[in-house]
Design brief:
The chain is built from 13 helices and 7 strands. The protein is α/β, with parallel strands linked by helices. It has a single domain, classed as Glycerol-3-phosphate (1)-acyltransferase (3-Layer(aba) Sandwich), CATH 3.40.1130. Helix 12 runs antiparallel to helix 13. The protein is globular, with a radius of gyration of 18 Å. Belongs to the taffazin family. Keywords: Acyltransferase, Lipid metabolism, Membrane, Mitochondrion, Mitochondrion inner membrane, Mitochondrion outer membrane, Transferase. Its main location: mitochondrion.
Length: about 280
């Protein structure tokens, strides 16, 4: 039997003063650490940075959902190292992120650290109706920021993976349509490789492209008029988000080939297949 994570989400719902203070410190320290790694010890090229900054500084009460590809265990928090210091060190502004319970929440110490860092334990294979998803729907309803990797695991081989329907549920059940911002990145798997000994690397080149917000209102109206079922609604929303994120992938690859043609061949080529199976994160 694995570590019991049943206490985590109740604690996240009712943090208490001491927990809130510890969480604020954890968020700030991890955010600043990520910024040092991404912007000072490695080189990061960001396209459309202002869109992400504007989304994080959105009007109070507007829900924000960010979606991205998942190539490395450092994708989150590494992605957010490009934000300004004020946002990185603000617990109220920073994201909630779904994290695999069997990777990040395997003992009391790890569980406390990730929970304090606003990570929510999701159980792979438990479906879209599980406590972690319920919690994230609640956060969006309160106008907070939730980040999700729709592939559902670290895509080590950078293959095509159908997005999980959880992202569709987050959008469908949010009382007000969230601001959906796609992000595509390349190079974070060089900063933290997916092979042992899992040590951070330096002087690598990371590319991050922030897409324009995905327009979902018309699709939601169409689904309501058609009296679509919950499953049909989740599937349609998920397909739309996947299509837009893959378009952003293609645009990002084109930008990288123009900006760094010598680097692009290695950066964009999938790694050779491994003999041992990769864990799903």
């Amino acid at each position: 039997m694995g570590y019991d994570i049943g206490w985590i989400i109740p604690r996240l719902r009712n943090p208490g003063r001491l927990w809130y203070c510890a969480s604020s410190i954890t968020v700030a320290v991890v955010g600043l650490f990520s910024k040092i790694i991404i912007e000072f010890l490695n080189k990061t090229t960001v396209y459309n940075r202002e869109t992400l900054a504007a989304a994080v500084r959105r009007p109070r009460g507007q829900p924000l959902l960010t979606v991205s590809n998942h190539h490395s265990c450092f994708d989150d928090p590494g992605l957010w190292g490009v934000l300004d210091v004020r946002s990185l060190t603000s617990r109220s502004r920073m994201r909630w992120s779904l994290a695999a319970h069997d990777i990040c929440f395997t003992n009391a110490l790890h569980s406390c650290f990730f929970a304090l860092g606003k990570c929510v334990p999701v159980v792979r294979g438990a479906g879209v109706h599980q406590p972690a998803m319920d919690f994230c729907v609640e956060r969006l309803a309160r106008g907070e920021w939730v980040h999700i990797f729709p592939e559902g695991r670290v895509n080590v081989n950078k293959e095509h993976i159908r997005f999980k329907w959880g992202v569709g549920r987050l959008v469908a059940e949010c009382p007000a349509p969230p601001l959906i911002v796609p992000v595509w990145h390349e190079g974070l798997d060089a900063v933290l490789p997916n092979q042992e000994p899992y040590l951070l690397k330096f002087r690598k080149h990371v590319f991050l492209n922030v897409g324009e917000p995905i327009q979902i209102h018309q699709l939601l109206d169409k689904l309501r008029r058609a009296n679509a079922s919950e499953e049909e609604t989740r599937a349609a929303i998920t397909d739309t988000i996947q299509r837009e994120l893959l378009r952003l992938r293609d645009a990002t690859h084109a930008l990288i080939r123009r900006a760094a043609p010598k680097r692009a061949a290695d950066l964009l080529a999938p790694p050779p297949p491994r003999q041992d199976p990769e864990p799903e994160l």
